Amino acid sequence: MQKNKRPFLLFYLLVFYVLIQFAWWSYLLFSLNSEVYVHKTESILLSSYSPADTSNKQNILNAKLNNRLLMIAGEGMVFLIILIYGISRVKKGFQKELEINKQQKNFLLSVTHELKSPIASARLQLETLLKRDLDKTMQTKILNNALADTQRLNDLVEKILQATRIESANVNETIEEINISELTAFLIENFKNNSNTKQNFTQNIQENILLATTNDDWVFMVNNLIENAIKYSPSNSQITLELVQNEDTISLKVCDEGEEIPEEEKEKITEKFYRIGNEETRNTKGTGLGLYIVKSLVEKYYGQLHIKKNEPKGNVFEIIFPNNLSN
Questions:
Q1: pLDDT in tens, 136-147
Q2: pTM of the predicted model, to two decimals?
Q3: I need a labelling partner for 7 at 20 to 30 A (CA). Which of 128, 153, 196, 269 fits?
C-alpha cells in the first residue's frame, strides 16, 4: 500500500510546487505593472504639462494599466485552466495505471491458483492409480476426477483464448440461425445432472427461439452465467433461467439467490481481470475473464448485459438482443 501511495505523494508535491510558482509569478507580474504605473504617474506629474494634458495622460495611463491587468488575468486564467486539466489527466493516468497493475496482479494470482490446483489434483489421482492396486469402481472414480481436473484446465485455456479472439479483429466466424431454446435447455440439463451442483434449477424457456450467432458463443455466454450463479449462490438455493422472445427483443435471464452485488461494483465486474475483493484472500475460483467475455460477446451481437437486484435476494444477469438479428 505504501508503494502505491508514494508516486501520488511525489505527484502532489510537484503539483503544489507548480501552483505556488504560478501564484508567485502572478504576484510579481502584478507588482511590476504597479511599479511601472507609479513611476509613469510620477513622471507625468513632474512634467510641465497643463492640467488638462496631465489629466488626459493620466486617464490614458490608467486605461493601459487596466487593459494590461485584464490581459494578465485572462492569460493567467487560461494557463491555470490548462494546468488543472493537465494535472487531472495525469492523475487519472496514474490511477488507471495502478488499477491495471492491480488487475494484472489479480489475474496472475488467480491463474496461478487455477492452474496449480487441477494439475496437482490430477497428478495425485494418477499417482494413486500407479501406486495402488484398486478395484474397477475406484479406478473409474479416480479417472473421472482426473478428467474433471483436465476439463477445468481446458476451460481456463479456452477463456484465455476466447479473450484473445475477442480482441483480434481478423477472426472469421460463420454466423447462422441457431435454435437457442433447445441449446439452452440442453445446457441446463447438463448442470442439473452434474453431481457437484448443489443448487436447484427452475426454467422458463420459450420454444423455437432463433438467434443469428455461433454455437460456441451462445454456449459460452449461457455456461458462464450459470457457472457464475452457482459459484456465488449458497447450497440448496434457487437458480432460475428464463428465455423469452417478444416483438422487439430476445431476453435471457439468470437469477440467483447469492449475496447482492454492490451497485458501485456492477460496472466494474465486467471489466477484464476485475474481481471483487482481494485475490490473496478470496476463496472462490475464477480469473476475472468470464463476465468480460460474456459482455464482449453480447455487444458483438448488438445486445446489452444488465445486472440487477433479485427479489427478495440475489442478482439477475440479463442479456437482451434485438429481435431483428434472427430475421
A1: 888 888 888 888
A2: 0.59
A3: 269
